[in-house]
Amino acid sequence: MPFSEIIRMALSSLGVHKLRSFLTMAGITIGVFSVIGVMTTVSALRGSIETGLSFLGSDVFQFSKWPSGIQVTGNNWDKYRKRRNISFAQAQRYRELMDGYADVIRMVAWKGGGTAVYGLHHTTPNVQYGGTNENFITTNQFTIETGRNFTPDDIVLGRPVVIIGQTLVNMLFPSETPLGKTIKVADHAYTVVGTFASKGTLFGGDQDEIAIVPISRFLSDNGANNFTLNVATQAPTALAYNDTVDRAVTAMRIARGLRPGDENDFDLYSNESLIAAFAKVADIVSEGAFVISAIALIAAGVGIMNIMLVSVTERTKEIGIRKSIGARKVNILMQFLLESVALSLAGGLVGIFLGIVTGDGLAVMLHASIIFPWGWTLVALIVCSVIGVGFGLYPAIQAAGLDPIDALRYE
Which of 99, 308, 316, 342 has the least C-beta neighbours within 10 A? Predict the structure, then answer.
């Protein structure tokens, strides 16, 4: 019997019981959809994360009370919460100790969402309100569009001035220039001296809904004891990076008043550590999706075997007739194997399509690049083929081994 004829008969047999075939495929579809969807989303986000977190230069590191990302979880939350804040005085002392060795380029503190008001106009209560120094625009890759940046005198004198993002410009000043106008941010009055060029969104958040003031003024207005500073430092050269980090850790310990035997009560991170933390999260999510998908695929494979065994029983007489007119064991074996593989591959293809559409849809929502996961698609197709053969082999052998006389007598 020609192979094309075996394929035709196999597909024709599946079409007889459309609902049963669809439900059998559904298990494979769910398993493949979960892993392809997650892998597509994770792969698309990796590039966006690496770009989005590159606000520190390659030779820049940062001190913070809190560690990055996934380290602040579960039982160790209290450990970090009980740490002392990094105060403005400590940051200034650290800067003095690093003078001549490296540039302490940024100090920043943030307050939760606030509302900005000008006249009858006001923003949403989600404004990123913070205090920093004149180096913020460099380390965070912002650009001044109109007006000016902070000056060292603004920081020293604690002037009530503010630089705002384009979302605030559009909401508060739809028909006039914001420069020189006085606005209220979190109930504190500031004069607008500059505006940022638009930055767009990052991970679904609006980077243009921002208002920053001199760090000294911010702490004075909001209570210095309520905030901890992040302090960024730039090594003089890439080659001197490790030596600079060692010296900086010692300087921060001195500024914090730690004794030689005390544990560091601050954390240090860079671009690489931030990206590694997010990569670790992505790996955990991927592993979880893989385990769930593997369980779903095994369950779907058992379902395929069960349906194929039922099919063998239902078609016993048909098998006997085919054998009596010359069909060989290999023809029967191939037909039932092809039916099993066709069910598995069809479910896998639907799962791949839905997974890619869903994964890239989430990536678009998070403003990440759209990708096609060729590697995972190939793996999914191979796995579906293996499931089709592995779980369809026993029913196929059962069908091929039926005695034609007994099969013809079967009712």
Answer: 99
User: What is the distance between the alpha carbons of residues 145 and 165, in angstroms, rounded to a whole number?
Assistant: 9
pTM: 0.63
CA distance 370 to 185: 37
Asked if 248 and 30 count as a contact pair (C-beta separation under 8 A), the reply is no
Q: How many CB atoms lie within 10 A of CB 90?
A: 21
- Residue with structure tokens 């991970």? 203
- Residue 181: which residues within 8 A CB-CB, separation 6 or more? 118, 173, 191, 192
Q: Sort residue 70 into left (φ over 0), alpha (ψ -120 to 50) or beta.
A: alpha
Using CA atoms, how far apart are residues 141 and 126, in angstroms rounded to an integer?
A: 21
- Write the pLDDT tens digit of every residue in 136-183: 887 777 899 999 999 999 999 999 999 999 999 999 999 899 999 999
- Token pair listed for 313: 């029983």
Please give the backbone phi and psi of residue 385, each rounded to the nearest 5 degrees, phi first.
-65, -45
Residues shown for the chain? 411
Question: Cα–Cα distance between 290 and 298 in angstroms, integer?
Answer: 12
Using alpha carbons only, give the angle 140, 141, 142 rounded to the nearest 5 degrees.
Answer: 95
For 273-335, the DSSP string reads HHHHHHHHHHHHHHHHHHHHHHHHHHHHHHHHHHHHHHHHHHTHHHHHHHHHTT--HHHHHHH
